[in-house]
Amino acid sequence: MKTKLKEFLNSKFLKNKYLKYMFVLASGLFLGWLIFGGSSENNHAETHDHSHESADKTVWTCSMHPQIRMDEPGKCPLCAMDLISLKSTGNSEFIDPNAIQMSEEAIALANIQTTIVGRKSAVKEIELYGVIQVDERLSQSQTSHVNGRIEKLFVNFTGESIRQGQTIASVYSPDLLNAQQELLEAVKIQSIQPLLLEAAKEKLRLWKLTDNQIDAIIKSGKVNPVVELKSNSSGVVISKNVSQGDYINQGTVLLNVADLSQVWAMFEAYEIDLPFLKVGDYLEFTLQAIPGKTFSGKISFIDPLLDKTTRTSKVRVVTSNPGMRLKPEMYATAKVKASLRQHGDELVVPKSAVLWTGKRSIIYIKQPNTETPTFMLREIELGPSLGNSYVVLKGIEDGEEIVTNGSFSIDATAQLEGKRSMMNIEADEPMKGHEVHDMHSNSAWIKGEHAMLKVQGSCEMCKDRIEKTSKSVSGVYSANWDLKTNELHLDFDPKKTNLDKISEAIAKAGHDTEKHKADKSVYESLPACCEYRE
């Protein structure tokens, strides 16, 4: 081999200098390809893999400090908040430019939960507060039918039980004494004037003397200056209006008696709840004085008049009272499950899924058939509130998957990426990615204002009254009163109302605020548990 190479180098072919230069150049190119060509391919493969890694890489940032960029999840170095996913892109599917993609790790850290939307009968749960009261139909007054003086009173205190026919008082009456004498005179001449005897008896009957009492007078032949008054009903004495020795006139009310074998539970329903209540609705209620026991009944009456001060109407439930356990003025709390007949088979979503943007209601829809979890903002139209959920009238379809927890985290990601979110969605912007029919596309975007107001109160009934009164003011979106701190947090449209108007409405309902004081008459009409003034 060496001999042949030596002969080739000494050959006439390489004695030509131009041919020799060309040979050296070709050899150099060949050696360069052998040395650098393969590594270049390897470098190209490595570069390709690195770019693929970079495409799938998640960037983490802080919702309060968007200038922070991290390669891994953790805490913000400025405020110690949990970092959220800024960008996570897949490479296998086409997505809408306004869609939000998040990695599985980001979804887990933000505790994002979804559910499938379905149809069901709309049932609204309404909470009512009230007290036990005497059944007015079973109450009677014990009155005097004669003029005179009470010689002896046999009922001595309020709350005493009496029975029908029981003697409640003995009364000295000059008029009754004369009527007895007329009776005895009529007896003497009854053979001549029989009708006169009957007239004398009837006069005593009109003064509520019984036939036995009249017969006793005739049999003894003596008048009695003192007559006994009998009870005309059985029950419990709820008020005692006279004392022994008092002078009374005909018609004077001696006692008020109530039959407590059946009582009323009287509740107050706010005007916004009245459309969902009707006579015959079944409800359950509990009493603070009898914990662990649930009572039930049907609504028998709804007051057609609304109290202009409390903005409530009376709702009555008749219930039996075995053992006299239910006592008048006991506090009661009721829950009514009202079936909304006009919304018998509607789409229902949890309240936690809805984001409020002034007059708009926003939810996030999880897109189907995507490799990376993808979410789209959607505007919906809400129907009645059902307690912890809403009826949806327009905007979503049966079977779609919506975000029920963590919507704010997704929206924060959208804001950081400059995409459509609850803070920058415009009313006239088309709803991309899904055709929504009959949307109010030309209504104005309104930015709400948040404020805090000190409001006095003392119980859960106060909380319910304060919040519902606040929401009844036009332009108020939300109201939340803290029982411990007495702070009312408000979100409202400053173009429609202001803090002074809201404060004035709350004061009219009976609660002092830092701006207005409730009238004394309104305050004193509140239930005893709502008293907060010293």
CATH architecture of the domain at 141-257: Beta Barrel
Broad structural category: alpha+beta
Q: State the total count of DSSP E strands.
A: 28
The percentage of residues in β strands lies in 25-35%
Multimeric organization: single chain
How large is the count of helical segments?
A: 10
Mean pLDDT reading: 79
By CATH, the topology of the domain at 141-257 is OB fold (Dihydrolipoamide Acetyltransferase, E2P)
Please give the share of residues in helix.
10-25%
Instruction: Find the CATH superfamily of the domain at 141-257.
Output: RNA polymerase II/Efflux pump adaptor protein, barrel-sandwich hybrid domain
Question: What's the level 1 CATH class of the domain at 141-257?
Answer: Mainly Beta
Distance between the termini: 119 Å
Largest sheet: 7 strands, antiparallel
Instruction: Determine Rg (CA atoms, Å).
Output: 44 Å
Gross morphology: rod-shaped
* Residue runs with pLDDT of under 50 for 5 or more positions: 38-55, 87-94, 427-447
Architecture overview:
The chain has 534 residues and is α+β, with helices and mostly antiparallel strands. Among the domains are: 2-49; 125-135 and 260-339, Efflux pump adaptor protein, beta barrel domain (Elongation Factor Tu (Ef-tu), domain 3, Beta Barrel); 141-257, OB fold (Dihydrolipoamide Acetyltransferase, E2P), CATH 2.40.50.100; 449-530, Alpha-Beta Plaits (2-Layer Sandwich). It contains ten helices and 28 strands. Strand 21 and strand 22 (360-366) form a beta hairpin. Helix 4 (174-188) packs antiparallel against helix 5.
